Structure formats: structure tokens, C-alpha cells
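Support request from a user on the community tier.

User writes: "When I paste my C-alpha cells into the form, the page sometimes reloads and wipes my input. The last time it worked, I copied everything first. Here is what I submitted, just in case something in the input itself triggers the reload:"
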């Protein structure tokens, strides 16, 4: 159906496109261009295809820069799809990317796999293609009528067309004729349609779709080089990292550990969200630096009111030492102006005097509520909410108007090689290789009861023979989950049972909700020997 094509040949033009998805249908008589695989017949029926729109910031670059950004975007999108376990091919057609799935039976569905594209920076949006056919107006109208008449039935709809190439019809012709074919089923509404039927014509092929998923925009991760982010596990540093990733900066992370393995585990869990969900195309590492000795020395040698400022300086120095080894060209922090005492404008100036690399503070003008809202959106909020604040090492009144020279004098008595030695002995993990099982294995167990820790005897009732470890709290395993919310989070806890099964499970529960808790390796037998 549809009228005969107009006799004139139009120059290339641009329209607009919107998009939801429906099933793929076979359109006979399709053709393939030299840069597109064949799409006709049963081959097309067996594959899901998506059209991916590129963020405006990428598309607006010079051709040379844009080619480089496209190459990185294709790589990052391919990594995202591969991480989902689906087989897919990404084709670069300059103003669009095309994703074609050919995954094994039983693997994740194409729609599930494409959800990862909503977290690939540089992607503006994408749509599942319902049909690919010859760039012929009659065929487009016929296919659109067949595909979408039930979708628009009784609803408000619009037709959006976009065309690239030389054809005997215009984008407006597509909208008029396909709209007329669908008019008996719905009501045209160009302002607030419930369904938007989209057609993109690209040279010899036409793509039909009716749905859109939004991407995050921004620049592909890696096109702006590499930086080091000081990560604490809290809301601020995670959100700051996300903003730099969105601007195309690949990140490694430096974590200055002030409070032991449970704290370390919490920070790694937050960093995994950034690495697994937002860093496609990159393999970020976390550099874990033990800061127990630096904290002890500064508390011994520095005036207390300067502790916070000097501590931040030492962290900057640790991050710069890592940056020197990794080739990073900037530091990233989650500092927000005026949020805490160490983040007043004079204090930030005094702290930054210790750095030789640029210090990027993407949250400098954000308030806490804004930061938490973003953390919820990117997926780090629930984990960050469990991380205790360990950087506040001074209970009294800290300096709020420090001068760089005064802080230099306060820092001078410290061993100049102290931070360098701790950085040299750091632990380095490739974050995307860290597993849940590894976190439980490496961070739940202790070999002995640390000084000052509370001991909890969580043996089940049928294992209780009446023996008690001095000073321990006796709470059967089944009762401990109800007791945990009332425990003081400022204490460390060591749990034990006879075989380690209950203590490991419950220590994991406590760590998950922000407690400094561990299972004792060796359990009852170990304690009876002490």
C-alpha cells in the first residue's frame, strides 16, 4: 500500500527519532549494504539488532578526534556486552552504532544484555530494531502498518522519520504516508504521543523501531587519559569517581586503610560497583595502602588540631606515588567545599599545596543531599551508607583556617619516607576480578582476638557444653540477627563457634551492615587453648 514515490530525488536530510520495543518480524526482499550483514530470510529472524545513538559531545568533535572516540566507544560497548555473557557484534556506521546478537541458545537475552549499554558512557540512547528492509517508501509503509497497527490501536501516536542518503522520498513523506496508514487505529498526537513509531533510512536500508532506552551520555571511558581517585567507600568519593568516568577519564583507586580488613572489604564492594557497572573497556585497580603507621606517627608528632589536614596531605602523597607508577596525570577526590572541617577553602588550599599533580574535585559545589541522590542512581548508595567514617581522627576542635606554611611546619617532624614505604608495601587488586567468594574468604577471618574486641559465642544451643570464654557475650546463632542492630558500631567483634559455619555466616551479616566483625579461625578449640 502507499502512493507512488515522488519523482524528484532529495538531498540527504536529518529528521528525529524516538523509540519501546516489540518483536522482530521478517520482511522479505531486504538487501544489505557493503558494510551491513545480510538481513533477509531466516538469518534475520534468528538475530536481535539494536541501533545505538552516539552522545552529542562525541558527534560534535572534529573528524580525527571523533574517529578516536568512536573506536574507544565500540571497544567499551563490546566489553559491556561481552561482560553480560551474550554474543554480539558492534558495527560503527559513523552517526550510529549497530549491535547484532548471535549468542548461544540458553544465554542471556538480547534485551537483558543491552541493559549494560545504559551504563556505557558515550551512548546517548538505543532502540531495538523491529525490521530492516529496502529503502523503499511503499515497503516502509507496508511494514510499518503490519508492525504497529496493534500497538497504536486506541492510543495517541506519532511517526518520526530520519533519512540519510539520496532517495526519491523525504522524511516528511514517510511521516505522512505511514501516519495515514496507521490513522484508522489511533489518534495522531505530535505533542504527547503514547507510542512513537520511528523510521531511520540510511542509504539503501530502512530501520523500523518503536522504543528507546536512554544511555548515560558523556565521553567514552579512556579518551581523556587516566587519573587516580582517593576512595574512602563513602558517598562522596564514589560519586566523584563516577563524574570523572563520565568525562572519559579511566581511573585507578587508592584506598588509605585506617581501620582494618572489614573497612577494606566495604570499600572494595563500593569500588566494584564503579568498576563492574561503569568502567567498561577498562580494568581498574585498587591500591590498598595501610595507613595505621602514618596515623600513629602523626598523632605522636603533630599538634592535634592539625591532624585532619596533615592526614589528608599524607593521603595526597600516597595517591601521587601511585600515580607516578601508573602514568596517571591527575588526582580525584570527593571533597565538597565546606562539608566538613578539613574542606574549608583555606584548608583545601593548604592540603593541595602538598600535591604536584592537578587535583580534580567534581563535587566541590554539591551538598550532601545532592550527592546521595546521585549515589542512589549509580548504585553505590546502599553500600556507602554502611561504611563508617574513619577519617575523623580528632574528637576535639580541628583547625578550619590553616595556612600552607603552618601545615608545612606541622608535617616537618614526620618521617619523610613513611608514606613511600607504605605505598611500596601496598596490596593491588584488579577490581573486576574480585568475587563475592573472595571477599568472604579474605576479609572475614582472624587468627586471634585483637586487643579490645568484643567476643561473641554464637554456638548453637546443642553445641553449648557450659564452657565460657572470659568476658564473652553468649548469644546463640539463631538469636544474634535480632541482637545485632543494638550493638555498638564503634566496637570490633570476634565471633566463634565450634566449626566456623555459624560464626562465618553471622560475621558476614554484620560486616554487610557496617560492623567491624570477624569469625575466629579455629573457633572454640582455639580459644580453649589460650
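"...and here is what came back when it finally went through:"
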Amino acid at each position: 500500500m502507499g502512493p507512488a514515490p515522488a519523482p524528484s530525488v532529495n538531498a540527504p536530510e536529518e529528521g528525529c527519532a524516538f523509540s519501546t520495543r516489540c518483536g522482530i518480524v521478517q520482511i522479505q526482499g531486504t538487501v544489505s549494504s557493503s558494510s551491513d550483514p545480510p538481513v533477509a530470510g531466516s538469518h534475520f529472524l534468528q538475530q536481535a539488532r539494536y541501533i545505538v545513538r552516539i552522545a552529542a559531545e562525541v558527534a560534535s568533535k572534529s573528524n580525527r578526534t571523533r574517529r578516536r572516540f568512536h573506536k574507544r566507544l565500540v571497544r567499551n560497548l563490546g566489553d559491556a556486552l561481552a561482560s553480560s555473557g551474550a554474543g554480539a557484534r558492534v558495527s560503527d556506521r559513523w552517526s550510529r552504532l549497530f549491535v547484532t546478537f548471535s549468542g548461544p541458545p540458553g544465554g542471556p537475552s538480547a534485551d537483558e544484555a543491552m541493559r549494560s549499554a545504559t551504563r556505557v558512557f558515550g551512548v546517548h540512547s538505543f532502540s531495538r530494531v523491529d525490521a530492516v528492509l529496502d529503502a523503499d517508501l511503499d515497503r516502509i509503509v507496508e511494514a510499518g502498518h503490519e508492525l504497529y497497527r496493534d500497538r497504536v490501536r486506541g492510543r495517541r501516536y506519532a511517526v518520526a522519520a530520519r533519512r540519510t542518503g539520496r532517495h526519491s522520498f523525504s522524511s516528511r513523506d514517510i511521516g505522512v504516508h505511514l501516519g495515514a496508514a496507521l490513522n484508522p487505529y489511533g489518534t495522531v498526537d505530535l505533542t504527547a504521543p503514547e507510542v512513537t513509531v520511528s523510521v531511520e533510512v540510511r542509504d539503501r536500508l530502512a530501520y523500523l523501531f518503536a522504543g528507546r532506552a536512554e544511555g548515560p551520555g558523556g565521553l567514552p571511558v579512556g579518551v581523556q587519559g587516566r587519573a587516580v581517585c582517593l576512595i574512602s567507600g563513602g558517598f562522596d568519593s564514589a560519586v566523584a569517581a563516577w563524574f570523572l568516568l563520565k568525562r572519559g577519564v579511566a581511573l585507578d583507586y587508592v584506598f588509605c586503610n585506617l581501620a582494618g580488613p572489614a573497612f577494606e572489604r566495604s570499600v572494595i564492594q563500593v569500588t566494584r560497583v564503579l568498576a563492574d557497572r561503569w568502567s567498561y573497556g577498562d580494568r581498574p585497580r585498587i591500591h590498598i595502602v595501610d595507613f595505621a603507621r602514618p596515623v600513629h606517627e602523626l598523632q605522636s608528632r603533630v599538634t592535634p588540631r592539625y591532624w585532619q589536614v596533615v592526614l589528608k596531605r599524607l593521603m595526597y602523597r600516597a595517591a601521587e606515588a601511585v600515580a607516578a607508577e601508573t602514568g596517571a596525570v591527575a588526582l580525584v577526590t570527593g571533597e565538597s567545599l565546606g562539608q566538613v572541617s578539613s574542606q574549608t577553602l583555606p584548608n583545601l588550599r593548604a592540603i593541595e599545596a602538598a600535591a604536584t599533580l592537578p587535583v580534580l574535585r567534581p563535587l566541590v559545589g554539591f551538598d550532601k543531599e545532592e550527592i546521595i541522590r546521585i549515589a542512589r542512581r549509580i548504585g553505590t548508595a546502599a553500600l556507602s551508607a554502611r561504611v563508617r567514617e574513619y577519617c575523623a581522627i580528632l574528637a576535639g576542635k580541628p583547625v578550619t583556617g590553616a595556612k600552607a606554611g603552618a601545615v608545612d611546619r606541622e608535617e616537618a617532624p614526620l618521617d619523610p619516607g613513611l608514606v613511600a614505604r607504605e605505598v611500596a608495601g601496598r596490596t593491588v587488586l584488579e577490581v573486576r576480578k574480585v568475587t563475592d567468594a573472595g571477599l568472604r574468604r579474605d576479609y572475614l577471618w582472624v587468627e586471634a582476638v585483637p586487643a579490645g574486641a568484643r567476643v561473641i559465642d554464637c554456638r548453637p544451643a546443642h553445641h553449648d557444653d557450659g564452657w565460657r570464654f572470659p568476658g564473652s557475650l553468649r548469644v546463640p546463632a539463631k538469636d544474634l540477627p535480632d541482637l545485632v542492630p543494638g550493638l555498638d558500631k564503634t566496637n570490633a567483634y570476634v565471633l566463634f563457634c565450634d566449626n566456623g559455619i555459624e560464626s562465618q555466616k553471622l560475621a558476614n551479616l554484620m560486616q554487610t551492615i557496617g560492623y567491624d566483625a570477624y569469625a575466629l579461625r579455629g573457633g572454640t578449640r582455639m580459644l580453649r587453648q589460650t
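Agent notes: The reload is a front-end session timeout and is unrelated to the input. Residues 88 and 120 are 15 Å apart (CA to CA). The chain has a mean pLDDT of 87. Escalated to web team.
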